């Protein structure tokens, strides 16, 4: 076992804490709830849990507006409860990853309260303050992700402050060394409490242009799209100055790595491929000094077609620097759920894809039972994105609805009133019901994960793209002489697999139905949206844990 095995060979599971499990009947998920459900994660077979923000917050952006980086919001629990969670997770063999939100704080954070109190305040420069433009308007044309300008005027001191998101989320000034030192202390605070790493929020945006130049128009903008996309974020995202800061962050988490287990940084980065892979931080000596896992969201953004995905995987594999660990993501709390994007049948194929590709997979809670986006009526909307830009399909409540555990009241999520409505089908689709159903999505996920864990070819093997025509995606995974072939039919009709691709070996797992596990005689025909793993399973293969 090497110190990196857990995040290189393992699987990450994202918990959106408000929606996972409520333990005290207030309708909001909490840390004790997560603790009570750890066995679900163990039986699923994942290795690490990433929990979205749990820190004190006015909840303008549901925890991504933090008013104290070193405590727990009372709605989620206490620091003691957090320590108990770490301990119990670790005892069950699970690593714990927290969300680190470096770009901004809440406007109620004491640092910002101080910063806005006077131009002469010692913390003034911890945030980004600028004089109004000559016409009294914002200093430049930058836009906020959730609508309106990225600047708000503060009458007390007569200047504007920058906020890439809501006006309640002022941007920190990462050019200020005091800010960097303070934020690294935040990392150390949680590392000392035993966390195994961080998912770093909007990492590419933490440094802004020193001259605050206007962003140019986006030539690809189409009327009707989110108006935020009107401009290309040339001067407030992915500036060269971000990279040395990433390396500094990495050195901080490395202080806590040891021979048994390394600490990990995962970057939230929606960037074109060439820019994305720069965040591995390959330096002149060939050492990767950036984040270990720059999130690869291409399966979220790409058209769901075999030929497109084939291209994406090949290009990604080719773009990775030597020694870089790939990773794949199907969904998260900001994007429509996979089962809604591609449909329930295809979602099974997507699960097989995610769990057989080369690289660390991240699962979004609920996807393992095929949860879908839940339409939220206008008067129940919670997400500020939807409130600020209603009716554009940008709201994120639909993919954040409560986890469906059982057929008990409110799906076993809460004894109170859930903060967000449940999917209407929760009585049928829940963890308990699917646990006993051999044909369920949950059973498929468990089998795929068990296979991945047991087979070195899947959790650490090489990737070889195979030619299988436009509707089929095929690849081989190989390790220590073991070769598994994965063939996925993205088409809407039954399709014969080119015979040359089919090894004379049994089907180890099919995405459609476990009874398909069989030896192949004669031509192999895959049903629509069916995928298979073929080869000789290595029964004694080491597991990742
Ligand atoms: C990205 C997070 O995933 C999203 O939920 C949040 O609203 C923004 N960053 C702002 O922190």
Q: Strands, helices and their partners?
A:
Blueprint: H1 5-8, E1 12-15, H2 31-36, H3 38-44, E2 48-51, H4 79-91, E3 95-100, H5 110-115, E4 129-130, E5 151-154, E6 159-162, H6 177-192, E7 197-200, H7 242-254, E8 264-267, H8 273-277, E9 293-294, H9 298-301, H10 306-319, E10 327-329, H11 338-342, H12 344-356, E11 360-364, H13 384-388, H14 431-435, H15 441-454, H16 456-459, E12 462-466, E13 472-479, E14 482-489, E15 495-496, E16 507-510, E17 525-526, E18 531-535
Parallel strand pairs: 1-2, 1-11, 2-3, 3-7, 7-8, 8-9, 10-11
Antiparallel strand pairs: 4-6, 5-6, 12-13, 13-14, 14-18, 15-17, 16-18
Helix pairs in contact: 6-7, 12-15
The structure holds 1-deoxynojirimycin.
Word description of this protein:
There is one protein chain. The protein has 545 residues and is of the alpha/beta class. It has 3 domains: 5-104 and 177-448, Alpha-Beta Barrel (TIM Barrel), CATH 3.20.20.80; 110-162, Oligo-1,6-glucosidase, domain 2 (Alpha-Beta Complex), CATH 3.90.400; 462-535, Immunoglobulin-like. Helices cover 25% and strands 14% of the residues. It is built from 16 helices and 18 strands. The protein has helices at 5-8, 31-36, 38-44, 79-91, 110-115, 177-192, 242-254, 273-277, 298-301, 306-319, 338-342, 344-356, 384-388, 431-435, 441-454, 456-459, and strands spanning 12-15, 48-51, 95-100, 129-130, 151-154, 159-162, 197-200, 264-267, 293-294, 327-329, 360-364, 462-466, 472-479, 482-489, 495-496, 507-510, 525-526, 531-535. The chain has an 8-stranded parallel beta sheet with strand order 9-8-7-3-2-1-11-10. β13 (472-479) and β14 (482-489) form a beta hairpin. The radius of gyration is 24 Å and the shape is globular. The relative contact order is 0.10. The model has no long low-confidence stretch (mean pLDDT 96). The site of 1-deoxynojirimycin has 9 residues, from loops.
């Amino acid at each position: 076992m090497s110190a990196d095995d857990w995040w290189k060979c393992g699987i990450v599971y994202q918990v959106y804490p408000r929606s996972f499990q409520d333990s005290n009947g207030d309708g909001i998920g909490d840390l004790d709830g997560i603790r009570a459900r750890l066995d679900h994660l163990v039986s699923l077979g994942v290795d690490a849990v990433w929990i979205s923000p749990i820190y004190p917050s006015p909840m303008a952006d549901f925890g991504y507006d933090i008013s104290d980086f070193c405590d727990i919001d009372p709605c989620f629990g206490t620091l003691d409860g957090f320590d108990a969670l770490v301990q119990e997770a670790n005892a069950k063999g699970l690593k714990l990853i927290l969300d680190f939100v470096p770009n901004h704080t809440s406007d109620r954070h004491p640092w910002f309260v101080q910063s806005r109190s006077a131009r002469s305040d010692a913390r003034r420069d911890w945030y980004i303050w600028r004089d109004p433009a000559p016409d009294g308007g914002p200093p430049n044309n930058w836009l906020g992700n959730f609508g309106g300008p990225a600047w708000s005027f503060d009458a007390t001191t007569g200047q504007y402050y920058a906020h890439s998101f809501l006006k309640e989320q002022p941007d920190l000034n990462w050019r200020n060394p005091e800010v960097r030192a303070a934020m690294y202390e935040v990392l150390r605070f949680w590392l000392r409490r035993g966390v195994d790493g961080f998912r770093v929020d909007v990492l590419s945006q933490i440094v802004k242009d020193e001259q605050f130049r206007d962003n140019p128009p986006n030539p690809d903008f189409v009327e009707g799209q989110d108006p935020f996309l009107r401009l290309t974020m040339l001067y407030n995202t992915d500036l060269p100055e971000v990279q040395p800061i990433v390396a500094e962050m990495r050195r901080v988490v490395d202080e806590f790595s040891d021979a048994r287990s390394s600490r990990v940084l995962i970057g939230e980065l929606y960037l074109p491929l060439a820019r994305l892979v720069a965040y591995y931080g390959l330096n002149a000596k060939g050492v990767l000094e950036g984040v270990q896992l720059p999130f690869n969201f291409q399966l979220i953004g790409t058209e769901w077609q075999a030929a497109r995905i084939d291209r994406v995987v090949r290009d990604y594999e080719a773009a990775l620097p030597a020694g870089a660990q790939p990773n794949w993501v199907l969904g998260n709390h900001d994007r429509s759920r996979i089962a809604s994007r591609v449909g329930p049948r295809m979602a099974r194929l997507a699960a097989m894809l995610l769990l057989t590709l080369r690289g660390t997979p991240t699962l979004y809670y609920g996807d393992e039972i095929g949860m879908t986006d839940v339409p939220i009526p206008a008067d129940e909307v919670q997400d500020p994105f939807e409130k600020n830009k209603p009716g554009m399909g940008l709201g994120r409540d639909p993919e954040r609805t409560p986890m469906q555990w059982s057929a008990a009241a409110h799906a076993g999520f809460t004894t109170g009133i859930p903060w967000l409505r449940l999917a209407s089908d929760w009585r049928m689709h829940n963890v308990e019901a699917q646990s006993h159903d051999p044909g369920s999505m949950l059973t498929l996920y468990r089998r795929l994960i068990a296979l991945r864990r047991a087979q070195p070819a899947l959790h650490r093997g090489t990737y070889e793209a195979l030619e299988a025509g436009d509707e089929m995606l095929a690849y081989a995974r190989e390790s220590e002489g073991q070769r598994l072939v994965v063939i996925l039919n993205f088409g809407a009709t039954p399709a014969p697999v080119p015979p040359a691709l089919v090894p004379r070996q049994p089907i180890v797992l099919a995405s459609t139905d476990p009874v398909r596990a069989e030896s192949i005689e004669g031509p192999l025909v895959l049903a629509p949206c069916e995928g298979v793993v073929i080869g000789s399973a290595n029964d004694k293969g080491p597991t990742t844990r």
